[in-house]
Amino acid sequence: xxxxxxxxxxxxxxxAIQALEDDIAGIRxxxxxxxxxxxxxxxxxxxxxxxxxxxxxxxxxxHTLMIRPFDASSLKEIEKAxxxxxxxxxPNNDGKVIRLNLPPLTExxxxxxxxxxxxxxxxxxxxxxxxxxxxxxxxxxFKNEKLISEDDEKQGEEELQKITDRxxxxxxxxxxxxQKEIMxx
Length: 185
Fold this sequence. Notes:
Elements: H1 2-25, E1 41-44, E2 47-50, H2 51-54, E3 55-61, E4 64-69, H3 75-84, E5 91-93, E6 98-101, H4 107-144, H5 150-183
Antiparallel strand pairs: 1-2, 3-4, 4-6, 5-6
């Protein structure tokens, strides 16, 4: 019973980690990264579609992203979505592909991005703690329903804390790696 709870908690925590990684992949660093625009919603035949589903995104050099739509008629819509996004990038359209030139980040902008990353990391930590809280509540319910003993309850809470600590450490590693990317000149 507790093993199933641990598996469920770990799966939910892994989901929170994955959401964090997807989220901070879109935060701009000094290098061009397809993650910056992959999830950008583009109006395509009347519905919002992620850019990565309607175009290939490549990185020809460290400061350029190249977007090649699968359907040439979607070029204008992709360009509109890029202009409307808060990326602060101007698309260069040559009729076949869109090029995005990433200017070097200023020191001030780097600090702002570091704060954004810090906030996202804190949100992920909160999500992990909320999952732990739900797990603790389930363990208490098991004990109240006499499904587990007091010793099992104590052991379960300790195991849940170990799992939580492991995922919090993973968040810290992800955060450190992203901070280094942002501050790298």
